[in-house]
Design goal:
The chain is globular. The chain is an alpha+beta fold. The N and C termini lie far apart (28 Å). It has one domain: Aspartate Aminotransferase, domain 1, CATH 3.90.1150. It has four helices and five strands. It has a five-stranded antiparallel sheet. It is 40% helix and 24% strand.
Length: 122
Amino acid sequence: MMSHLTDRVGAFLEDIRLIDPVRHQLIEAIMQQIAQLDPAITSEVKYGGLLFSKGHAFCGIFSYGQHVSLEFGEGAQLTDTHLALEGGGKQRRHIKLRSQADIAKKQISSYLRLAYQLALQP
């Protein structure tokens, strides 16, 4: 887990852990991959989920009844090599995750890296 979580982020994660430990573990695993990109990435509770930023927001994690959604505000600009991105909006794309196995199967680290690199561009 990210070492510099705010109280609000910590409370949000605790609420999810109490409601659904499986989804909580999934979120924690995604957050570990985000933290590996850059220890200076910040997180905040916004829009009912967690947003991760480096300069500006590059991804978000949202917990739903049966899955966790990893969302990219600029997802349409990401190269979808692994065909995991969903959504047909102008910019936004997401990846639905239902299990720990989905993290590797859907190549989450690759998409996180692409979104992070895109966020660093001026």
